[in-house]
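Quick one - inputs below.
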Amino acid sequence: DAGVIQSPRHEVTEMGQEVTLRCKPISGHDYLFWYRQTMMRGLELLIYFNNNVPIDDSGMPEDRFSAKMPNASFSTLKIQPSEPRDSAVYFCASSLGGGGAGSLSNQPQHFGDGTRLSIL
Amino acid sequence: AQTVTQSQPEMSVQEAETVTLSCTYDTSESDYYLFWYKQPPSRQMILVIRQEAYKQQNATENRFSVNFQKAAKSFSLKISDSQLGDAAMYFCAYRGRPLIGGGADGLTFGKGTHLIIQP
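Output:
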């Protein structure tokens, strides 16, 4: 089975440019998560979606960051304009919800291979 | 907000020996999940093991087992018969209940422990 697919694997661009990271979740998964990994702050949740609807975007650092999920099989994370401090590895993960109404999901998250973003 | 603390930035163990990685967390919830993820140099995030808070029995997966102490909010990972392929960053992660309704929520990660396996 195909796992979570992220593209590109590496991205190098100059400060001020728009950056778009892409993610295809595992088919049938109804949750999608975006994380950022840096040496200073470790792994942080940026935003997550349930059934294509953003549920919690409190981790998005500032208005330069935006994420969309136009359908169940595709999501983007966009940075405009990019800054050197945005350099990091960005992970996408997906999971099944599981559980009943009001129940805590017991399903693990499956991660993509990440996009290493370097802003010069 | 929940926090996850891994107090060992780096650990080293001889091949075939046993090593224990520590993790503590802070939460006011009673229902949650805990995970250990492995990140090798390839940077993949690989699920090693998970523990449900309401289960008293410690989870095991082959050479990997946990010591879950709910009252102490401790969740350590034991790796038996260490192998060279176990060398990686290990992250402890917490997942609680979403603010609204049920379902899933994002993971809160510790800063990680770098595990070195000496041949």
